Amino acid sequence: MAISVSPVNSNKVFALIESDSDQDKGGLFVSNNAGKTWSMVSGDNRLVQRAWYYIEVFTDPKDEDIVYVLSAPALRSEDGGKTWKRLTGTHGDFHDLWINPDNNKNMVIANDGGAELDEDNETKAIIITGNGEKAFVAGADISEFAHFDVSQGGELAAKGQELLFDFVENLSTPVIAAVNGFALGGGLELAMACHFRVAGVNAKMGLPETTLGLIPGYGSCHGNDTDRKHGDR
Ligand SMILES: CC(C)(COP(=O)(O)OP(=O)(O)OC[C@H]1O[C@@H](n2cnc3c(N)ncnc32)[C@H](O)[C@@H]1OP(=O)(O)O)[C@@H](O)C(=O)NCCC(=O)NCCSC(=O)CCO
């Protein structure tokens, strides 16, 4: 079972409940009096089809009638759970959803393929650039990991790759690197993770860490699965 209290109206509570599949009594239930009484709003099987694995329900922070259920598909209802529309995504098995409490069009959803920003129609593209004329990104501060051993270094590279570089590369919104100065080490790798790169006349790119015997850790040398498939680096 999963439960969600509306941030707009704390008397409104949604409960997503699995039942014995022979009885087929599962679905979404709602209480409008803070849990005293309940009624079923939907028995749509898509809502509970992954219940043996996980089950998630979220209420919109601005509108008590907008509800999200994460299952094999991600589903959205705008009428308090009566009818559902499927959200598109790069992958199935949706596990988690964050909705910006101040802007309910701004969301991050996580599925087995990674994390995605919402399909915010207002955001057509994302531009990453440096503040000022000098640098796009000068790379990592080597003094922060100079004392790491091999396994700590590997862990740092794997974590950074997943948290930032794969995240950027897998965004459905196009990401442009506007390289306006030094793009060094991880900075160059960040530009490479973007979908497009535009270099200014003062752009200077390189992997200076190799002069210290450090293998660049974020995909510029070895790429990731996508690169191996498409050979695009
Ligand atoms: C970026 C360079 C070329 C700028 O050179 P310069 O104009 O001479 O300015 P500096 O005096 O060297 O630097 C100014 C100021 O910035 C700090 N700084 C520079 N680079 C970094 C960095 N990567 N991380 C943290 N801080 C940085 C520098 O210490 C100075 O600070 P002060 O407090 O003013 O002293 C030049 O700085 C340069 O070559 N930097 C190193 C670039 C680099 O090696 N990048 C790769 C890092 S490894 C990596 O990213 C791993 C990914 O696989």
TrEMBL record:
<dbReference type="InterPro" id="IPR015943">
    <property type="entry name" value="WD40/YVTN_repeat-like_dom_sf"/>
</dbReference>
<protein>
    <recommendedName>
        <fullName>Enoyl-CoA hydratase, mitochondrial</fullName>
    </recommendedName>
</protein>
<dbReference type="Pfam" id="PF00378">
    <property type="entry name" value="ECH_1"/>
</dbReference>
<dbReference type="GO" id="GO:0006635">
    <property type="term" value="P:fatty acid beta-oxidation"/>
</dbReference>
<comment type="subunit">
    <text>Homohexamer; dimer of trimers.</text>
</comment>
<dbReference type="InterPro" id="IPR036278">
    <property type="entry name" value="Sialidase_sf"/>
</dbReference>
<dbReference type="InterPro" id="IPR001753">
    <property type="entry name" value="Enoyl-CoA_hydra/iso"/>
</dbReference>
<dbReference type="InterPro" id="IPR018376">
    <property type="entry name" value="Enoyl-CoA_hyd/isom_CS"/>
</dbReference>
<dbReference type="GO" id="GO:0004300">
    <property type="term" value="F:enoyl-CoA hydratase activity"/>
</dbReference>
<dbReference type="InterPro" id="IPR029045">
    <property type="entry name" value="ClpP/crotonase-like_dom_sf"/>
</dbReference>
<comment type="similarity">
    <text>Belongs to the enoyl-CoA hydratase/isomerase family.</text>
</comment>
<comment type="pathway">
    <text>Lipid metabolism; fatty acid beta-oxidation.</text>
</comment>
